[in-house]
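Appendix C reproduces, verbatim, an entry submitted by the partner laboratory led by Prof. M.T., so that reviewers can inspect both the input and the predicted structure.
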Amino acid sequence: MMRIGLLGFGTVGKGVYEIIAPREDMTVVRVLCRRELSLPDAAVTHNFDDILQDPTIDTVVEAIGGLHPAYEYVRAAILAGKNVATANKALIATYYDDLIPLAKQQGVLLRCTASVGGGIGWLSELERASRIERIRHVGGIMNGTCNYILDSMTRLGLGYGEALKQAQDLGYAEADPTTDVEGIDTWHKLIVSANIGFHVSLDREGIPAAGISRISAGDVACFTANNLVCKLVSTADLRDGSYSAFVQPTLYPLGQPEAAVPANYNLITLEGDVSGRQSFFGQGAGRYPTAYNMVQDCVDFTVGKGFYRGYGPKVAVDNSVKLRYYVRGERDAWLDAVTEHHWGAAAVTKAVPVFEMHRWLKNHPQAFIAAFAE
C-alpha cells in the first residue's frame, strides 16, 4: 500500500485526503498543516521533517502552493527517495528542469498533471501527442477564477468587484486574487504547457502577461454590443522555427467555442501537424477537480509511471506576431498612430506587434487591453 505524506490541508489538500480515504491501495499517514487539526487516521504535524524522515512514507503530495518552501520540501523529498505529486504550477514552471533530472538521478517518480487544467488530464495528453507529432500551438483558457469572473460579468451584468467577491465566496478565488487576475497563474501554466509541448525551455522573461483586474462593466457592455465575449487566454505558437508566447484578454465572436466556456471551466487546445486541433474542456479550479488529478498521479506511481522528459534547449521568444486590439485608457501619440477607429472612449487598433502592445501597456498601468482573436 502506498503511504503518503500530504503537504497542506487547504482547499486542494483536503480534497486529496477525502478522495484517498476510502481507497485500499493508498493511505495518507501524515499531514503537514499550519493550523491545529485532528484527523481519525493520519498524524498531523507542523514540522516537515516528520514526513521527510519517516522511512515508511514513500510518496509526498505537495498541496501548499507557492515557490517557497514548496521547492525546498519537494527537492528534499526527492533526495530522500520519495515520489512526488504536485499541483504547483509556479514550482514546475520555475524548477522543472532542476527537479526532473534530480528525480531521474534518485530513481523516483515526479508528476504534476494537476498543475495545468485542474481536473483535465491536459498535460498527460499533451505529452502523448508530442511523442509522435510536432506541436505547433498550445494555449487557451487556463484559469478558472478569471473565467468565472468574466463569465459572471458577461452573463449576469456584474461589475468586476462584485464578480470577484462572488468567486471568493465560492472558493474559486483567493483572499488575495492577484496571482490569478493579473495573469501570473496563467503565465506559469503556459510556460509549463509550451515547454512540454515544444520540448524546449522558453525564455520566461520574453513572455508578457496582461490580466483582467482593470476590466470594467463598460468594457463588457461594449463587447456585448459588438457580439464579442472576453476571455483571459494564453497563446504559444511555433511558426517557421520561431516561438511566440503571451497571456492576454482576448475577444471571441459569439458562436466560437471559447466564447461559450462557462463558470470556472477551462478550454485548452493543442494543434499538431498530424492530429490537427484538439481541445480539452473541464473544471479548472476547485477542491475536487484539482485533487482528482493529484490522486490520478499517485495511481500512476503504483504502476511505475513518472512524468515528462526535460524541457530541452533554452530558446528566445519572438512576439512580433501582429494582432488588433481593443484599448481603453490614456491616449498618446503611439496609440493615436495605430488607432483604426473608436468604440466610444476606447480605441480599436490596426494590427500591431504583440510585444509593442504589451510594452505600451507597461507604461499605462491604468489601461485595459483585449486582443481580437485571429
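DSSP finds 13 helices and 19 strands in the chain. Additional entries are available on request from the coordinating office.
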